[in-house]
Design brief:
CATH topology of the largest domain: FAD/NAD(P)-binding domain
Strand order of the largest sheet: 3-2-1-7-18
Strand content: 25-35%
CATH class of the largest domain: Alpha Beta
Largest sheet: 5 strands, parallel
Number of strands: 18
Structural class: alpha/beta
Order of helices and strands: EHEHEEEEEEHEHEHEEEEEHEEEH
CATH superfamily of the largest domain: FAD/NAD(P)-binding domain
Radius of gyration: 20 Å
Number of helices: 7
CATH architecture of the largest domain: 3-Layer(bba) Sandwich
Number of domains: 2
């Protein structure tokens, strides 16, 4: 049986699942949490709601509906993406294979407001370790972030660069991340790799033509040649970019069938840009689901 993985359990992801499930396709939904919709107090502008409903309730109802049709739903964070004869989605706990993937992770996370990030994009600032590690081989780099996503990017960089420093930007490392970083060092210590963690608040990413240092609010500086942004969770564009699909800023590029530039990879909802509304997400999810069905039937 063909299998599809849907990353995201909001309106777009669940809408897609309703179609793939009814088509007899094995459907796995990976959802970290209820996303931004789950924080909405009242939803009043969606068809069929006689009375306002909370975003959290709407998300939970949708997931229950998908489970009722046979979906498997797991609460894990997707942090990586690859292709090994089949699509491979890596989470903080496991790896999952599928014949097709639909990204429906909602609107992208925001990069921290630090001077120099936008100015040095492409000149030392990167958003994808898998894509750009090669250009920093033998150099000292840092990863800006404090969670599993930052650790995942650091691990990608360690075998290639001279050293990796994780900058938490004044925030506490999420539980398990520090130990994970130490474990990564232990595994690679014989290869000369080094890693450290700095908790100081970042004031600026600076340089001349390219990045050459990070300046902290306490006046300290770190000489560095590359900064990898891995703030919060892996965003939709991050996941698509890792596979080589086209992105425009933080938006995944799709055609009228919600297909990306990579065969078998689809995207729907806020991650494709446009109106950040449930109605749009539900439509695009349905379209992505039906397009995925047609793709999988050609295999």
């Amino acid at each position: 049986m063909s299998k599809v993985i849907i990353i995201g359990g909001g309106p777009a992801g669940i809408s897609a699942a309703l179609y793939t499930l009814r088509a007899g396709i094995d459907t796995l939904i990976i959802s970290k949490d209820s996303g931004s919709l789950g924080k909405a107090e009242k939803i009043e502008n969606y068809y069929g709601l006689e009375q306002p409903v909370s975003g959290k309730n709407l998300v939970e109802t949708g997931i229950s509906q998908a489970i009722g049709l046979g979906a498997i739903v797991i609460k894990e964070e997707a942090i990586g993406f690859g292709y090994e004869e089949k699509f491979v989605v890596t989470t903080t706990k496991n790896k999952y294979e599928a014949d097709g993937v639909i990204i429906a992770t909602g609107s992208p996370r925001k990069a921290p407001k630090i001077k120099g990030i936008s100015e040095f994009e492409g000149s030392g600032v990167s958003y994808c370790a898998v894509c750009d590690a090669f250009f920093f081989r033998g150099k000292n780099v840092c990863v800006l972030g404090n969670g599993e996503y930052a650790l995942s990017e650091a691990k990608e960089l360690l075998p290639v660069v001279n050293s990796v420093t994780i900058l938490t930007n004044g925030e506490a490392l999420k539980e398990g991340t520090h130990q994970g970083a130490l474990s990564a060092v232990q595994i690679l210590k014989n290869k000369g790799a080094a890693i450290q963690i700095i908790d100081d608040k970042v004031l600026e990413i600076a340089g001349d033509i390219k990045v050459n240092r990070v300046i902290f609010e306490n006046g300290n500086q770190l000489e560095i040649e590359g900064v990898f942004i891995a703030y919060g969770s892996a965003g939709s564009a991050d996941l698509a970019r890792k596979m080589g699909a086209d992105v425009a800023g933080n938006r995944i590029v799709v055609d009228e069938n919600m297909a990306t530039t990579l065969p078998g990879l689809f995207a729907a909802g806020d991650c494709t840009g446009g109106m950040l509304q449930i109605a749009k997400a539900v439509y695009e999810g349905a379209k992505a689901g039906t397009s995925a069905i047609q793709f999988l039937r050609t295999l």
